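Suppose a colleague, Dr. K., hands you the sequence of a protein chain of 208 amino acids and asks what its three-dimensional shape might be. Before reaching for any lab equipment, you can write down a predicted structure in token form. Begin with the sequence itself:
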Amino acid sequence: MPHAWPLTLSDAELTLRPLRRRDRRAFEMLLVRNREWLAPWEATDPDRSRGRPSHGELLRWAEREGRAGRHLNLLLCIGGRAAGQVSAGPIVYGAQSSAAIGYWVDHGRAGNGYAPRAVALLMDHCFAELGLHRVEVNIRPENEASVRVARKLHLREEGIRERFIHVDGQFRDHLSFALTAEEVSSDSAGRGVLARYRREHMSAMGES
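The predicted structure, expressed as tokens, is then:
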């Protein structure tokens, strides 16, 4: 299926877009501010000798993978300001036709519905634009805030994957959630997951 890159997805004040060179200072400040918040949940490389990629290396990787449609790594912006990240990848086509979603939001913005909206936006893109059949999210069971996001979006709980992803120095168990295209009833704009979330949650939050 044709794939558009660079990609921008929006819902009111919430925008998902690729990281840019000029985002470096704001993005690095965001990471520093959220270092302790993210450390227990962020995937890590078991080979410590490789270290964290530079901003330039991250940009080049994201551009290459985004153009190829293998991994969509997007900056989450609220009112134009960097406030987190959301990603889909690895993206597999053909018989498997699936992707895994990852996400995090600035701790100062947490609890305001930005994470579920961002995940819903990207899921809808995966289903409606990429034509994928299945999207999954894998979360450490202890990460209650992230588990709530999956449940708010009606992702189906599929159980524990033991020692599944390297996080904070060890391979950790993760709780898997998934959604398939058959479980989503999309509106005319292809926004089935987001439309359902808005119907069920946004009015309670005082948003139209």
